[in-house]
Amino acid sequence: MKPATEPLTPLEQQVIEHKATEVPFTGKYVDLFAPGMYHCRRCGAALYRSQDKFDAHCGWPAFDAAIPGAVREIPDADGVRTESVCAACGAHLGHVFSGEGWTERNTRYCINSMSMVFVPQMDPRAEASPVEVAVLASGCFWGTEYWLSRLEGVLSTEVGYAGGWLRQPSYQEVKTGGTGHLECVRVVFDPAKVSYRQVLRQYFNTFDFEQADGQGPDIGPQYRSAIFYTDLEQKHQAEQVLDELREKGYRPVTQLRPLDVFYPEQQDCHRHYYDKTGDTPYCHLWREVL
């Protein structure tokens, strides 16, 4: 099951990346109660199940539970509400409220339809297979994407930026090395076919994780390597893989950092670069170290 991965429309960008709110009663999922699963519009991660959806008469889709670990709750900029964001990519979803008494769970996730993609189930009793997301940096994102996209079980890859302070960075801005962002790749994969640890093994097999100042001839802070984990389980697995490398005598300098927001690169020329040109990466070479 592969959720939509098309580029966001300008209106979707306003909601998902700039935290705008849909006009009430206009979203396409407000009155939808068919069996299925709701995925993140930006990265495809599974967020909510239809059996947890209810009618709160508020004008937006309402759920009284999220898939465990799929949604993060952070204080809103207004200092009053609590924002709900995708744990995998940081996309703005809506807000969460408690103590209203709508259901026994006493929780209401008030979510924008534009932030989600609904995937229906043919059988209401069937459990949809959620996807997982990894965000990895290893120098020029052209080469990183080239190798990660070739791993069986990977559903989609997208180049972009993470780790910095500048919102909505452009390629030219990140290239200066002054934004704090690293070039990275968001990997959406099917955990039934490939594990997060296997994704990390492919990742470490494709670049020089002992180079601290960049990757190959690409020198600068934007080309450093990093694993951006989305939850504590990913962090734990990444730590174990790094320990494996150290036990083999390597000295990895790859950073391990929590993912805040992933900003996709908007220019199509950077997406699947080597597949378009027919070339192979100049600074990423596959060799088996794990």
From TrEMBL:
<feature type="active site">
    <location>
        <position position="140"/>
    </location>
</feature>
<protein>
    <recommendedName>
        <fullName>Peptide methionine sulfoxide reductase MsrA</fullName>
        <ecNumber>1.8.4.11</ecNumber>
    </recommendedName>
</protein>
<dbReference type="InterPro" id="IPR002579">
    <property type="entry name" value="Met_Sox_Rdtase_MsrB_dom"/>
</dbReference>
<comment type="similarity">
    <text>Belongs to the MsrA Met sulfoxide reductase family.</text>
</comment>
<dbReference type="GO" id="GO:0033743">
    <property type="term" value="F:peptide-methionine (R)-S-oxide reductase activity"/>
</dbReference>
<keyword id="KW-0511">Multifunctional enzyme</keyword>
<dbReference type="InterPro" id="IPR011057">
    <property type="entry name" value="Mss4-like_sf"/>
</dbReference>
<dbReference type="InterPro" id="IPR036509">
    <property type="entry name" value="Met_Sox_Rdtase_MsrA_sf"/>
</dbReference>
<dbReference type="InterPro" id="IPR002569">
    <property type="entry name" value="Met_Sox_Rdtase_MsrA_dom"/>
</dbReference>
<comment type="function">
    <text>Has an important function as a repair enzyme for proteins that have been inactivated by oxidation. Catalyzes the reversible oxidation-reduction of methionine sulfoxide in proteins to methionine.</text>
</comment>
<dbReference type="Pfam" id="PF01625">
    <property type="entry name" value="PMSR"/>
</dbReference>
<keyword id="KW-0560">Oxidoreductase</keyword>
<dbReference type="GO" id="GO:0008113">
    <property type="term" value="F:peptide-methionine (S)-S-oxide reductase activity"/>
</dbReference>
<feature type="domain" description="MsrB">
    <location>
        <begin position="1"/>
        <end position="121"/>
    </location>
</feature>
<dbReference type="Pfam" id="PF01641">
    <property type="entry name" value="SelR"/>
</dbReference>
